[in-house]
Design a protein that fits this description.
heterodimer; A: about 800 residues; 6-stranded antiparallel sheet; 21 helices; B: about 240 residues; Rossmann fold; 6 strands; about 15% strand
């Protein structure tokens, strides 16, 4: 039959290659077809080569790692693609099927392998593979773009948008050297904000009108692809230089626009993305569309970020205005307010700011930051702004970012605010609305401060004039007063003092405090002060006077609830009558005694309708040398401590100054008790009544007592106007004599008493120290001798009387009599 | 005893060897991620971007099963994976059996690995051709009979089923690895089984490994090719038993 085949011929010339190999791959039989396809001689293969030896090196690996194990495990392998290397090194794409034959014991015997020519199929597969690889690359780009879009949608600021965009070309196209430039509309320039360059973005800004490629792309708004340096040479010679310097062979300049992809009309260019490739590269259309899409997405994100920025800036501005308005209320006075303003502006808003106020012949100036602009030019501009009342936001050419704004209140130009915006901020012109608002608020705050200062000055003047009246003086008494205004910028208080002679022999002293502050308080204080002078009479006395004051405030409402400490002193009898209407108790010191508060004769504040309206008074006999202190609450009241503590501190301080001369005493007390920083006015009056003609003290035989005696003695000497040298001499001599009496007379027996008597005349001071002790012992003589020598050195005359104890009489001639 | 399969296959390749040790040892077989019946979701590109990631997997198996005195039998690339694991936690390992090990497949200066860089690239292309053929052949069958998943198991060339994408990356990691510097760090005794005519790991590479692994034993086998565990299981089993 014609279709009957010779099996041998079928084997040799079958339409496929046929190989028989040993289990280790050694070829033992091969057909003609395979030899014809590959060009090998049978003798080259049989017994000499393994099948894998005919494969390409890559396929050899595949053969060993996949084909051989599979064949061993499965017994057959189907349709494995191998490239057979032919005799002429040409590669023949094939598909291979193999079957492993085993002997009856199951041991591998031989492998039969069929080889099909798969040239066409493999070509087709390669096409498929290429298509898949292309699809994968495209997917990679799309994924990179999606990643960027996701990042863009999460980027709230232009800087973050730029940061996301600048990474995209490397991810999508393996690009190198990406830079993002953003348009700064205020300054009409392009600023590099992000770069993949490890050194960061370029630092030179490009004016929008520049001929540089970035500016040109921003103006034209369309995508520029520069495939070669030669192409760059033609269109952007400068870009060609940059490409050569950085090793870039192809470059892309992409505008970031708000319009839809590819649409340039009506689209606003917000920035430019530039990137390059280190090899020459043409971008195909799908790639270009991805690039355009990137530019469009970035543009929209920038647009959104710009709106965010704008909203954020508005919010920050509103907060700054609110905070500044609040902060400007803090200092009451004009210059502190002006300083506060410029210090808030620099560096938050401006790098330099100055407030000039048209007050006084020279004007007032507060400035902060720097550098200051040219002074002559600034003075010219200030003059123009003051004259026109209109702000100048720029000075074209000279100092474009320096603005001068008028500070107005009630239509009047109070002064100017000049400033230069901080670098990197929007220009003053761009911030015109904000700056005008700021200047308006500042004008008002400064005008209020000016009015306040004016009123405060008037009130102080009024207060000073009211308190300035001459206080009486007399050999029988002395009055010392002190008024200390509050250190902080508060209005004047309503504290006052007064001392006047009701009759020739009757002295009145007053300290009072009116409720409230400012001009009203000062005026009321004046009225009350005058009323007391008018109402005081020889017959009335303090209680009656207060009752009359109660009636007086029915007519002068602002004086209601004023407090008054009032005392009358009969200078013939040294008897004092006092009354306190809601006021702090007077503090009295008598010679040789401790200070004590006068707590009787207390009643409510003037005009208070609470309780009984009957006023009471109290009498106290005073000895010569007594001192009476009247004061207002500012002296002892502190928020940080209870009032009791204040009383205690005052009494202690007052006692410590018992030997201080009267002049300066009240001031010294105020300084010690309230210091320089106090929130309230302080008013003090100290009355010193007569002087002790004789100082007489009896002290226990205790060395501690010597210090107290010295204080009393010094105070007595000072009150008699004894010169310093004599005072020192008498104090030394007296101390030594008393010490000797304690040490040698009583030998420190604490029950011993030492009497000291001091008298004074116009010519001399005489001191007598007496003890009733028993002087003896040889050791005592030595020390005693030293003390005596000191006494003799400083005193002019010293006598000893040794009956019934010892009396030392010492005399010192006063300087005036020497 | 842990048996670790090499690149291109799965634990099936131990089918003639592992049962021989089941009577005397606790035998642990596993598939590397991407191979056999492993959970493909566990694949993380970052973790498996070098052999250390695979070595970490071996150590995790040891920890989870709390294995001690481990005899680790690694074929091909798993030989180096075992070396890396034993360097990191030597206290867990008693002995290593390295079948066809290679610390570096690509020639480098005087070092002979057996392959040029272009060979490896070509091998990756070869993978692409074959997977393309497979996926087009397998996919319709599986998709046409979703109610008969066992069909998948009966498909041609289904032994050593591996995920093509992962296999491609594993191939890249395997054939571009260079672990020559790790060899002197190994303190665990090791047996090197070197086949005759192994194109993947030629005898010169086996000698290199032997020279750089202190206290290692080299056994030259009569078996040819790269997979003596399949082509000469008896000789392989005897060599391992002789050593351990």
């Amino acid at each position: 039959m014609p279709w009957e085949e010779d099996p041998g011929d079928l084997y040799e010339h079958a339409p496929c290659g046929y190989l028989t190999t040993l289990p280790d791959g050694t070829i033992v039989r091969v057909n003609e077809t395979f030899l014809a396809w590959t060009g090998y001689e049978r003798s080259e293969l049989v017994g000499r080569k393994r099948f894998r030896d005919l494969l390409s090196p890559g396929d050899k690996i595949y053969h060993e790692t996949h084909y051989a194990p599979l064949l061993s495990m499965q017994g057959d392998v189907h349709e494995v693609a191998f490239d057979v290397v032919c005799a002429d090194r040409r590669r023949l794409p094939t598909l291979v099927n193999s079957v492993l034959g085993r002997d009856p014991a199951g041991h591998p015997r031989a492998i039969r392998t069929m080889v099909f020519d798969a040239t066409e199929r493999r070509g087709y597969e390669k096409e498929l593979l290429k298509a898949r690889r292309t699809a994968e690359a495209s997917e990679l780009r799309v994924r990179a773009l999606q990643q960027v879009v996701a990042e863009l949608s999460a980027a709230p600021s232009a800087a973050e948008v730029a940061g996301a965009v600048v990474r995209a070309p490397a991810a999508a196209f393996d690009a190198a050297f990406c830079n993002v430039w953003l348009v700064d509309p205020d300054r009409d320039q392009l600023t590099a904000v992000a770069s993949t360059d490890p050194d960061g973005p370029a630092r030179d800004d490009i004016p929008c009108s520049s001929s540089r490629p970035i500016a040109e792309v921003a103006r034209r708004g369309d995508l520029h692809v520069v495939p070669t340096i030669a192409a760059a040479e033609e269109r952007f010679p400068e870009l060609a230089d940059t490409m050569r310097r950085t090793g870039i062979r192809s470059a892309v300049l992409l505008p970031l626009t708000t319009g839809f992809a590819g649409e340039t009309i009506g689209a606003e260019v917000l920035g430019v993305l530039s990137f390059g490739f280190t090899e020459e590269r043409e971008l195909d259309e799908p790639e270009l569309s991805v690039v355009r899409l990137l530019g469009h997405q970035a543009g929209q994100a920038l647009d959104r970020a710009r709106l965010y920025d704008d909203a954020g800036r508005r919010e920050a501005r509103a907060m700054f205005l609110a905070e500044t308005t609040r902060a400007l209320e803090e200092p009451y006075r004009l210059m502190p307010r002006a300083r506060n303003l410029v210090e808030r502006l620099v560096p938050a808003i401006a790098e330099w700011a100055a407030v000039r106020l048209q007050i006084g012949p020279a004007g007032l100036l507060a400035d902060a930051g720097g550098p200051a602009p040219d002074q002559v030019r600034l003075a010219e501009r200030v003059a123009i702004v003051v004259a026109n009342g209109k702000a100048e936001f720029t000075d074209v050419g000279a100092d474009p970012d320096c603005a001068v704004l008028p500070l107005t209140a009630g239509g009047k130009v109070l002064g100017t605010l000049a400033l230069r915006m901080a670098p990197g901020r929007r220009t003053a012109a761009a911030e015109a609305a904000f700056l005008s608002d700021l200047a308006d608020r500042a004008g008002l705050a400064l005008e209020n401060a000016r009015l306040y200062e004016q009123e405060r000055a008037i009130a102080r003047t009024l207060q000073r004039s009211l308190l300035a009246g001459d206080l009486p003086s007399d050999p029988r008494f002395a009055v010392e007063t002190h008024y200390q205004a509050a250190a902080q910028d508060l209005e004047v208080g309503g504290d006052w003092f007064d001392a006047f002679l009701i009759t020739q022999d009757k002295l009145a002293v007053v300290v009072g405090d009116v409720v409230g502050r400012g001009i009203d308080a000062a005026t009321t204080m004046g009225q009350l002060r005058s009323a007391i002078r008018a109402l005081a009479s020889a017959e009335a006395g303090p209680a009656r006077l207060l009752e009359r004051l109660d009636r007086f405030v029915d007519r002068v409402e602002s004086a209601r609830m004023a407090t008054v400490a009032y005392a009358e002193v009969d200078l013939t009898t040294n008897e004092m009558t006092y009354a306190c209407a809601g006021h702090l108790p007077p503090l009295l010191t008598e010679p040789g005694g401790s200070p004590r508060y006068l707590l009787d004769a207390r009643s409510g504040a003037i005009g208070s309708r609470a309780g009984s309206t009957a006023r009471i008074e109290h009498r106290v006999p005073l000895s010569p040398g007594s001192r009476l202190l009247l004061y207002t609450d500012g002296l002892i009241e502190r928020r940080t401590r209870p009032i009791d503590k204040g009383f205690e501190v005052l009494a202690r301080t007052y006692a410590g100054r018992r030997d201080s001369p009267l002049p300066g005493l009240t001031k010294g007390l105020a300084q010690t008790l309230v210091g320089g920083d106090h929130p309230d006015d302080v008013c003090l009056l100290c009355l010193s009544l007569g002087t002790e003609e004789r100082l007489e003290r009896s002290i226990g035989a205790d060395p501690v007592q010597i210090a107290l005696l010295r204080k009393d003695l010094r105070g007595w000497l000072v009150s008699h106007d004894v010169d310093d040298d004599s005072t020192q001499a008498v104090l030394l001599a007296c101390s030594e004599a008393v010490a000797n009496a304690i040490e040698h007379g009583y030998r420190n027996d604490p029950f011993g008493i030492v009497d000291v008597t001091a008298t004074i005349s116009a010519a001399a001071i005489e001191v007598e120290v007496t003890d009733r002790g028993n002087w003896k012992g040889p050791t005592g003589e030595v020390s005693r001798g030293r003390g005596l020598r000191l006494i003799r050195q400083v005193m002019d005359q010293v006598n000893f009387d040794r009956r019934d104890g010892t009396t030392v009489t010492m005399r010192r001639t006063r300087r005036e009599a020497r | 005893m842990i048996f670790a399969h090499g690149y291109g296959c799965d634990q099936n390749m131990w089918r003639y060897v592992a049962p021989e040790f089941a009577g005397t040892h606790r035998v642990v077989l596993f598939d590397h991620v991407g191979a056999g019946k492993s959970d493909l979701r566990a694949y993380e590109e970052e973790r498996y971007s070098n052999l250390e990631g695979y070595a970490s997997d071996v150590l995790e198996i040891i920890h989870d099963l709390d294995l001690r005195d481990v005899i680790f039998v690694g074929h091909s690339v798993s030989a180096m994976i075992g070396v890396l694991a034993a360097i990191r936690e030597p206290q867990r390992f008693a002995k290593l059996v390295l079948i066809g090990p290679s610390p570096r497949y690509i020639d480098d200066g005087d070092y002979v690995g057996g392959f040029a860089k272009t060979d490896v690239e070509e091998m990756l292309a070869s993978l692409d051709s074959n997977y393309l053929g497979w996926s087009s052949a397998i996919a319709p069958v599986i998709m046409g009979n979703p109610d008969r998943p066992e069909l998948g198991a009966e498909l041609t060339n289904s032994f050593c089923a591996t995920d093509p994408e992962i296999a491609r990356k594993f191939a890249f990691v395997t054939f571009t690895a260079d672990n020559r510097d790790d060899l002197p760090k190994l303190r665990t005794p090791a047996l090197i089984l070197q086949c005759t005519d192994d194109v993947i790991a030629p005898a010169v590479v086996g000698d290199y490994v032997h020279e750089h692994l202190r206290g290692s034993t080299l056994v030259a086998m009569n078996a040819t090719g790269h997979c003596p565990n399949l082509s000469a299981p008896a000789e392989t089993v005897a060599a391992i038993k002789g050593y351990i």
